[in-house]
Amino acid sequence: MKSLLTTLTILLCFTNHAISQNKSSIDKPNIVIFYVDDLGWQDSELNDLDEPTPWETPNMVALAKEGINFTNAYSPAPTCAPSRAAMLSGLHPTKTGVTHVSGGTAPKSTKRSKYVTPFYPIGLMPENFTIAEALKMNGYTTGHVGKWHVGALDIQKSTKQGFDFAYESRGAHQGPKREKNRVNNFATHDEGDRYRLSDEKYPPFTKSSPNGISYPKDMVTEKALEFISTSKDEPFFLYLAHWLVHAPIHTKNKELLQYYSDKLGIEMPTKDIPIKTGGQTNPFYGSMVTSLDWSLGRIVDLLKTTDDPRHPGKKLIETTYIIFSSDNGGVEKANGDIVTDNFPLDQGKKYAQEGGIRVPMVIAGPQIPKGETKDVLINQLDFFPTVLNLTNSTVPEKYSSEFDGLDISGVLLDNDKEVADKNGNAREDLWWHFPHNTDSQMQSAIRHGDYKLYKNLIPGTYELYRLYKNGKREDLEEKFDIAKDNPKVVKDLAARLEKYLEEYNAQFPYKNPSKFKAEETASIPVIVNDTYDAESRKATITLEKGKSDVVEPYVLIRIANKSALKKKGKLKKHSTTFIKVPLEASKNNLEYTYTVPENIMEYGFVLIDENQFMVQSEFRRIN
Question: pTM score, two decimals?
Answer without folding.
Answer: 0.94
